[in-house]
Amino acid sequence: MLKERGVPFAGIVCGKLRRYFDFKNLVDVIKIPLGIFQAYRAIQRFKPDVVFAKGGYVSVPVVIAAFLRRVPVVIHESDVSPGLATRICARFARVILLSWEESQKYFSKRAVHKFVVTGNIVRSTVTRGDKKRGYAYTGFAENKPIVLVMGGSTGSQFMNELVCSAASELVKECQLIHITGVQKNSCVKNLPRGLKDYRSFEYVDKELPDIYSITDLVVSRAGANSLAEIAECGIPNILIPLPTTSSRGDQLENARVFEKAGASVVLKQEGLEEGNFVAAIKNLLADQEKQRAMKEALASFRAPHALSLAVFAIVGPSRSLLQDHARYCHGKAPTWNGEKDLT
Fold first, then answer.
1. In the predicted structure, residue 65 carries a pLDDT above the cut 60
2. Domain range annotation of the chain
3. Which of 20, 173, 248, 335 has the fewest CB within 10 Å, making it most exposed?
């Protein structure tokens, strides 16, 4: 994708930072220093003014190499609880951009001067969906509620099986859009042929904003990007976060913050069955007052200035000015001398 857009690109070897026994650790422990060396050479060749890292184990060698080359590092954490890679990168970063105020407690107190809360960056097209295109794409009507179920960027086998088992019952109350994930739609083939008011898609890209625009209720995992889009669109929602058996618990933390604010209903995957699932959807669809309160709560998670703050951090103002600009964007009184200082 980068090559198609004419963006210079260099790949490096990287090793995953596992905190459990795995024979792959024996190989990855060698890959890490090799990746740092390769990143060092790439930075030497590209001569960047700043390195921006988004987390994940692949970013660690690049951040360390940038630090060794004395290139400023800016990192961004999307989830409430940062992963190990982000916490390692934070030691070498000049600025740490956070999506949540609650994230600060997970870092060393020595890093407090580096924090800037920006919120999560959301594609500007997310809120520009067209209802006519949405109805045309799905073939649905306007006179019946629409529920969108999506299992994250790669889909969720658990959620797919849950939706398929409940589909015949759910379509009595709503029109159902089911995004399964690529090659994860095997259960869909077992549904009754021609099931009315049910549409499944393996993957949706540019049509997603149009689907959001006609959706009355979203059922989703609790990844940071999905939550940011749901908040930006203000759609009442039910979250089924990944359990700790399948993740480090980051989605549980994300969901907990939304639930505490009254922005989401959260269902735990453990013990979740068709009956509970259907009841939760029916109850929320029937409760207009709760939907209204949810929409109000979701508004507090919108971050319309997240992109400008991230860009502001990358282009290199002082941290104090950046922090004040963030306060200004969040509606708090700035301590710097006027907006002219931003230009």
1. yes
2. 24-121+304-342, 131-299
3. 20
Q: Choose among 247, 30, 263, 23: nearest CA to 255.
A: 263
Cα(40)–Cα(68) distance, rounded to whole angstroms?
8
Question: 26 phi and psi, to 5 degrees?
Answer: -65, -35
Triad 335, 340, 343: Cα angle to 5°: 115
What does the pLDDT read at residue 292? 98
- Determine the CATH number of domain 24-121+304-342: 3.40.50.2000
Is the pLDDT reported for residue 321 higher than 60?
no
Read off the tokens for 257. 């913050």
Pick the CATH number of 131-299 from 1.10.630.10, 3.10.290.30, 3.40.50.2000, 3.40.50.1220: 3.40.50.2000
Q: Are strands 95-98 and 115-117 parallel, antiparallel or unpaired?
A: parallel
Give yes or no for residue 339 having a pLDDT over 90. Answer: no
Contacts of 76 (CB under 8 A, 6+ apart): 52, 53, 54, 55, 96, 97, 98, 99, 118, 121, 310
Non-local (6+) Cβ contacts of 149 within 8 A are 159, 163, 176, 177, 178, 179, 218, 219, 220
Buried b (16+ CB within 10 A) or exposed e, 222-241: bbbbbbbbbbbbbbbbbbbb
